[in-house]
Amino acid sequence: MVSTNYAPEHTGIGPYSTQIAEHLAATGADTHVLAGMPHYPAWRVAEGYRGRWRIRERRGGVTVHRRRHTVPPRQTALRRALFEASLLAHGAVAPPRIRPDVVLTQMPSLAGGVLGGRLARQSGVPHVVVVQDLMGAAAEQSGIQGGGRAAALAGAVEARVLRGAAVVGVVHESFVDRVTAMGVPRARVHVVPNWTHVEGPSGDRERTRARLGWSEKDTVLLHAGNMGLKQGLEVLVEAARLADQEAAPVRIVLMGDGNQRAHLQRLAEGVASLSFLPPADAQEFPDVLAAADVLAVTQKASVLDMSLPSKLTSYFMTGRPVIASVAAEGGTAQEVLRSGAGSVIAPEDPKALLAEVRALADDPEQASRLGRKSESGWKTPALASGLGTQSITMHRSSTCR
Predict the structure, then answer these.
(1) Residues contacting 130, CB < 8 A, separation 6+
(2) Which residue stretches of 195-278 are H helix?
(3) What confidence tens digit (pLDDT) does each residue in 129-176 have?
């Protein structure tokens, strides 16, 4: 497997790459992963990995080959290009010395796709790509500085990687048209949704709220996960500012890390209804989600078909309603509406967001109905039966067909 993101990263793509690799190892496959240094979502290399060029380690029965690369604390098109170039250069000059039977690449990143294709060609074996985010569309839609100029180049490299793959998996059907437009035959494209990589909550909800300092009188709206550009989290800051002005019993909480956290903290100075939490560990995470009253997923209005937030698979395990401040025509809106577990409102509209939170607070029966829908739709199907790899069985939402 080639995946820039891997454990101990516990948000984003890392958990999916890790669980696939560990599942394959558990079936008896000699499984190797070419990965970067752990850095997400903080965009800082994790303690214990800093200053090291190459590491070979065993995790969960998997041999992980790590290569050093740049980690830009702030995202621009140029810095992202340097990040990709460093991944590609180090992975190319120092590949794992193994001869695989199949190469499975998780994209992003672009460098991972190029490296995966190169390793597969050198060994004369199939290259299977699972598309978690569409990189060309991401450069175009996410608002990254210089992204418009980079989109065409990123899209061209991405298209070349996908056309060369034996099989392409996409995590949502909204990606299919873009992938086939790149010249990938439709017969090679399979929808392989992600699963939930967290367990349901197990702690005492009132105790968790008390520990976090959340009053029972307040309606807590929680956003958990990466604080990046595409999330457009400014809408939550402005909704909290409105809550201050209206003296609304609403607390908005941003939990996690990312390259926009410092910017959001500066923007939120003096806003009493907004607070920040550091990322929760894997055991605590479900309990914090369940302690909130409402869970938020936000995206910029320009984000349509380039990604599907991995947080949804965690949110849908909590029994809490979800508010999606996203474009109505995008895949994220489709998933929330399909689940029946939440509502979709216009993106980048803090007034509408606060109004929806207050409406749920005023109608606890509706909030409970939505929460029950989110809990009820979890099964254990084969994730990758159409990929030409071994069947991978894990939990996923029945809404993600």
Answers:
(1) 104, 105, 106, 107, 168, 169, 170, 171, 192, 387
(2) 205-212, 234-246, 261-267
(3) 999 988 777 666 666 666 566 777 888 999 999 999 999 999 989 899
In 3D space, the residue among 253, 240, 178 whose CA is nearest the CA of residue 212 turns out to be 253
Query: Which whole number is the average pLDDT over 79-89?
Result: 92
pLDDT for 375-389, tens place per residue? Answer: 654 433 334 444 444
The rounded distance, in Å, linking the Cα atoms of 222 and 323 is 10
| E-state strands within 157-302 | 167-170, 189-191, 219-224, 250-255, 274-277, 294-298
The answer to whether the beta carbons of residues 84 and 110 sit under 8 Å apart is yes
Tokens describing residue 117: 């294709």
Query: Pairing relation of β-strands 219-224 and 127-131?
Result: unpaired
The token pair that represents 250 in the structure block: 């609403």
Domains defined along the chain, listed by start:
14-195+383-397 (3.40.50.2000), 205-376 (3.40.50.2000)
